[in-house]
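Section 3.1: Structural characterization of target chains.
Under the original work plan, the team committed to producing a structural model for every single-chain target entering the pipeline before any wet-lab resources were allocated. The record below documents one such target. The sequence was received from the expression subgroup and is listed exactly as submitted; it comprises 189 residues.
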Amino acid sequence: MNIRWEALLQHVALFAILVIVSTVVYHGLRRENVKEIILSGLARALFFIAVSLLLSPAPAPAQGQPQDLAATTLHVGMHNIRAQLALTPQQRQIGLMFRQSMPNHEGMLFVFEDSSPQCFWMRNTLIPLSIAFLADDGTVVNLADMKPQSDESHCSAKPVRYALEMNQGWFAKRGVKPGSRIAGEVFAR
């Protein structure tokens, strides 16, 4: 379990105990209503627990850990790609950081809300990657090879909504170049 969630649950349990104890102290300990007082305090504590869990953000991957995201299948000619989807700003910021390796036909598709110039770097990324910047329909705008652990920027040649990272050389070995089209359901939206 994520350390952040464990700490949250410890605080919630402590809070529940405090609510029950304070309810008992506030109402006194008359024998005829002890059960009712404890149940009332417990109900309030459970309400606060539910609200705090609903309002707390989803756990982020632990620092220094690769993320495992939902994936989609993309197609380049006869080749299939299992691409994890980086949809949120936090997912896009972490990207493929901290991975020791990646299977040959896997990658990560970065999905942005709107087409705009996009730039990528390789800080905390341990494996060499190639990136394809993609137009709304999946057409390759430009490609770049990226070195591990580098802060060098690699930018799209024009505004794009998608970027696909694969193991370095994947696109070149399959003849993918600017103007090639990558297909998938995500581009039909």
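DSSP finds four helices and eight strands in the chain.
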